[in-house]
Amino acid sequence: MDDPAHDGTRIDADLLPCGIAGIDGEGRVTFANAALRDWLGREGQDLEGTRLLDLLTPAGRIYFETHLRPLLAVQGEFAEVAIELRRRDGTRIGVTMAARAEAADGTMRAARICVHRNEQRRAYERELLTRRIESERFAATVRSAPDAIIVIASDGRIEAWNPAATALFGWTEAEATGRRLDDLLVPADEPPLPDAVLAAIRAGEDLHDEVERLHRDGRSIPVRRSVAEVRDPVGRSSGRVVTYGDISEQRRARARVDVLVRELAHRTKNILAIVGVVARQTARHHAGADFTAAFDARLSSLSRNQDLLTVGGGERADLGALILGQLRPLDAGARIATDGPAVDLGPRAAQAVGMAIYELGTNAAKYGALSTPAGRLSVTWRTADGRLRLDWAETGGPPVSPPVRRGFGSRVTGALLDSALAGRATHDYAPGGLRWRLDAPLARLAD
Amino acid sequence: MDIKTRHAVTVDGSGDRAIVFVHGYGCDKTMWRKVAPAFEDAFTVVTYDLMGCGASATSDYDATRYGTLAGHADDLVAVLEGLGLRDVIAVGHSVSAMIVALAANARPDLVERLVMVCPSPSYMDDGDYVGGFARADLEGLLEVLDANYLGWSSDMAPAIMGTPDAPEHGQELVNSFCQADPDIAKHFAEVTFLSDHRADVKAVRQPTLVLQCRDDILVPPPVRDWLSENMPRADMVMLDATGHCPHVSFPQATIAAIRAAVAPVAAR
Fold first, then answer.
1. Looking at the partner chain, which of A61, A70, A78 has a beta carbon nearest the beta carbon of B31?
2. Which of B140, B174, B242 sits opposite A79 (nearest CB)?
3. Do the Cβ atoms of A437 and A369 come closer than 8 Å?
4. Is B39 part of a structural domain of the chain?
């Protein structure tokens, strides 16, 4: 059989479908076959004398000089290199290149180069690169996700386990992979998912719900779960991705809100009851515009107590702050001295003590020491043996005599306070000034 | 890990003076195999692999430390200190010409003399400065590396995943010589080709020999002009050689030029 490409001893390179070229030791083209000239848009021209580098893109030139030429010199050949050739008009053509060098005295004298067009493989490789970047992006997402992300195979074994899963459940990736998810995390008494739900997941519906999962140390953690089926390109299931987010904190917050709502309802009722009492008591001794003013002032006092409790997170108030808050509207400045340690008051005690201080203060301003410029008020307290001892001492005011009638004020500073605090409040109407003492257990105050 | 293992350091020859050869981007210390032995008669000859290349402990490659050439210069200092050498002749090819310059500036006590083979202080065009490449060209290099990474990975995967010592794998590897971890190679390419060391080159105070080649695609004539202007005291020698790797392609010319510059002290 005759083949014009082959005359029996030699092959005519111009008839071959691959690019073939030779270069000398300096990298100049010594011959190039028709296919290569054709691809480079140089039909009918010589490439001889052209630097091989001039047939490459700038990036390709660097790659050739830093990687391929050393390979030719030291290893004598290279193969399967993806590189782009540059046509004269600047357009590019992707090729796979292989070359073999001919050396003498350890120096490359010449090299032969084979080139195959590579456009489709290039496109495929670019696609692969895009996928690789996507996959790296995805891997970074999973690695840094705050939720535990676990991939399980169709047989329920764990295939991937991210750092958040380790943080949440205590098992390292190495310990978890290969184990069955049910063995590792699912409480023994949890019923299996209903068939309808399983069918929906298989049909491609993502499951979102809340369940309990086990930590390595045996404790149960409430989690938000999502389950998604993973499918291969032909639609077969290849496992599932399960995501768990820790909702312990949300659960605790929700419980706290529930408590607060109940507490708020309770306290609102209490306050309304107190307002009722204050209204009735005030009405006994005041009428008309007088009633409005007195009632208003007492409501403000209640409101100041409420403010303090709100600052303390709705639960607590400090005794010193409470006293100052109630006395501040009297605008007595340096005539009032207070001193004592921090004492923690619960909401009930704060309400009761606050009302008492208000009544005492109002009384002092109207009839007592604070009704004259020379009068002084000292409020001091100390704690010892689990009890609070508070001393209200007025001096320098008008002469004092016991009240002729006992109104709301004396109840609030006396019997009502005693019963609220399980303590004892005493009035001493000494002629030099009113002394009022309160002695109550700290435990009750803090309650 | 001791520094010699970390950088696959080899010490040959004998002599009171030491000469260290630092390979450039794209390969490893075997690039010097036709040149370094020629100095063993009169010098202690040190070669090693830059971190991330050749037989270095690539698991130590830290993208922050090696995010600039200073990390590699610190390694050169550590290698010299580890061997107890000082006043050495530091020969750096290509990017390593910058690495030896950084080390020489940081530790003049360790580096007595420099030989820069085909150096460029900056490959990127910048205003009046002509480095020879636009940023897009240099970024294109990263794409070429990526494209060839794929071929690499299919060849290397069995060797990495399975039994790297199995000879059948070793023999099948295409282009196994000079092959580096592709991610490191890419990172090193970025550091090499996108950084600017013009100021560091100007700061070199030690006697310096600059070897250049005709037709070096990485060091076009404007870069040579820049070096002549900004390194007035350096010896600029144009080898009778082409390309970017005269120590590989034209070892005799390279040896002769270095020998002439570093002839034993007594002879000078």
1. A70
2. B174
3. no
4. yes
Are the Cβ atoms of B140 and A58 closer than 8 angstroms?
A: yes
| Residue B70: predicted pLDDT | 96
Would you say residue B210 has pLDDT above 50? yes
Structure tokens at B207: 């006697």
| pLDDT of B155 above 50 | no
A110 CA to chain B: closest CA distance, Å?
12
- For chains A and B, CB pairs below 8 A equal 113
Q: In 3D, which of B158, B161, B155, B159 has the Cα closest to residue B175?
A: B155
- Round the average pLDDT of chain A to a whole number and report it: 88
- Return d(Cα A294, Cα A282) in angstroms, integer: 7
Q: What is the pLDDT of residue B178?
A: 67
Q: Which residues contact A286 (CB under 8 A, 6 or more apart)?
A: A293, A294, A295
Indicate whether B243 belongs to any domain. yes
CATH code at position B262: 3.40.50.1820
pLDDT tens digits, one per residue of A193-214: 999 998 999 888 999 999 999 9
The domain of B101 spans 3-122+197-267
In a domain, B28, yes or no: yes
Instruction: Identify whether the C-beta of residue B105 lies closer than 8 Å to the C-beta of residue B92.
Output: no
Ordered by where they begin, the domains of chain A are 13-123 (3.30.450.20), 145-246 (3.30.450.20), 253-446 (3.30.565.10)
- Residue located via tokens 């010097």: B32
Please give the tally of structural domains in chain B.
1
User: Is residue B175 scored above 50 in pLDDT?
Assistant: no
Residue from B143, B149, B155, B191 whose CB has the most chain A CBs within 10 Å, to mutate: B143
How near does any CA of chain B get to the CA of A106, in Å?
8
Residue type, B55: A
- What is the ipTM, given to two decimal places? 0.83
- Answer whether residue B207 is part of any domain: yes
Report chain B residues whose CB lies below 8 A from the CB of A106: 34, 251
Q: What are phi and psi of A122, to 5 degrees?
A: -60, -45
State mean pLDDT over B70-90: 96
Which residue in chain B has the smallest CA separation from A80?
A: B151
Catalytic residue IDs of B:
94, 216, 244
How are beta strands B18-22 and B88-93 bridged, if at all?
Answer: parallel
Q: Give A-chain residues touching B31 at CB under 8 angstroms.
A: 70, 74
pLDDT in tens, A390-444: 999 999 988 888 877 777 788 888 888 888 889 999 999 888 899 999 999 999 8
Q: How many CA atoms lie within 13 A of A412 on its CB side?
A: 26
Chain B hits for A52, CB-CB cut-off 8 Å, are none
Query: Taking CB atoms and an 8 Å limit, are B175 and A79 in contact across chains?
Result: yes
The answer, as to whether pTM is greater than 0.90, is: no
**Beta carbons of B178 and A67 less than 8 Å apart:** yes
Q: For residue A102, list chain B residues with Cβ-Cβ distance below 8 A.
A: none
In this predicted model, what pLDDT tens digit does every residue of B118-154 receive, in sequence order?
999 999 999 999 999 999 988 888 888 877 765 444 4
Instruction: Give per-residue pLDDT as tens, A285-320.
Output: 888 888 999 899 888 888 887 777 766 566 778 899
CB atoms closer than 10 angstroms to residue A93: 18
Distance in angstroms between the alpha carbons of the first and the last residue of chain A: 112
Q: Are strands A433-441 and A387-395 parallel, antiparallel or unpaired?
A: antiparallel
> Chain B residues contacting A, CB < 8 Å?
24-27, 30-31, 33-34, 94, 133-134, 137-141, 143-148, 150-151, 155, 174-178, 193, 215-218, 242-245, 248-251
